Amino acid sequence: MNIPKMKIGDLTFKIPIIQGGMGVGVSRSSLASAVANEGGLGVISGAQIGFEELDFETNSKEANIRSLKNEIRKAKENSPDGFIGVNLMVAMKNYAEMVKAAVEAKVDVIISGAGLPLDLPALVDNTKVKIIPIASSLKAARIITTSWRKNYNREADAIIIEGPEAGGHLGFKYNELIEHKTESLESIVVQVIDYLKDLGKDVPVIAAGGIFNGSDIGKFLKMGASGVQMATRFVTTPECDASDEFKMAYINAKKEDIVITNSPVGLPGRALHNNFLKKLEITKKEAVTKCYTCLNHCNPAETPYCITKALVNSVKGNVQDGLLFVGSNVYKCNKMESVKEIISSLMFELQTV
């Protein structure tokens, strides 16, 4: 098939790919600008993005805001003709301030999930920033879009539908995932496309979760999706901002290493089964000696472990003592490739679909 351009509001992308935001620190300016330079939407994850700032331990809030602005500016400098987005979780305690910081840094797109971003339109009012919610069901998509229309007279610039094969936090119940009783991504995407068509709304739908090759992309484009979001595929690249040890954990991963785990965020997550998770299965709880006040509804006295510490450990290279979120197809990542090589391969495959 011919490679369609992807349109989000008044932004036009040469290829129909959004690079998924991966925290902590996995997708920052290096990866985002590389994808943007190839014609896709490069995305920086705002989750605890300031972990390398000198004052992160004592003032994580300001460290995160400062680092987010710096990473957006670097990405835009390195991709002057591309478009840069950020992924900001609704569950973050300083969500509104991070949105404001992203707007001030002149980000092009804000993607928001891990909760319902019902107030996001107000936070970007009178700006040109495009806003894209993430939903894992027709119900969630309907709630968000109805609320935005009613309260702000605003349509989403696109909607990302994230299915059960995605990496990281998932918008499904733990038992549903373990017992494979979730709706498929294909089913949810079609439902949302039909819902928007029935309303007469021309809102692009982006499919996400478990998409790995050009055939996967083509399948969703034929269903009526305007593009796809891919994250795991871009980890094993020189441009990815994670440590080499983190990338090698992906390359060495086997299908049987992938597990569904309960995260302190209150959502199940897909991760690699390593020493960290094995130990937790025995102890049930790891002592939390420092709270980074990163998430709503997280009580340090009750949480099984500090998710900030676990994710920072892994991205820095301590992959056995940290949490490694992965997509369901991580075991297919068997070599290092540049972003350019991956996208060239994907587009070649897409043309043959």
Could you name the key traits of this structure?
353 residues; alpha/beta; TIM Barrel; 2 domains; 8-stranded parallel beta sheet; 3-stranded antiparallel beta sheet; 12 helices; 13 strands; 15% strand
Task: Quickly give the structural class.
Answer: alpha/beta
Total E-strand runs = 13
Roughly how many Å apart are the termini? 6 Å
Strand content: 15-25%
- Number of separate domains: 2
Taking Cα atoms only, what radius of gyration do you get, to the nearest Å?
19 Å
- Give the CA-based shape: globular
Number of helices: 12
User: Low-confidence parts, pLDDT < 50 over ≥5 residues?
Assistant: none
Order of helices and strands: EEEHEHEHEHEHEEHHEHEHEEHHH
Which fold name corresponds to the CATH topology of the largest domain?
TIM Barrel
Looking at the overall shape, the CATH architecture of the largest domain is: Alpha-Beta Barrel
CATH top level class name of the largest domain: Alpha Beta
**Can you give the helix content as a percent range?**
25-40%
Instruction: Assign the CATH superfamily of the largest domain.
Output: Aldolase class I
Query: What summary fits the major beta sheet?
Result: 8 strands, parallel
* Strand adjacency order, main sheet: 3-11-10-8-7-6-5-4
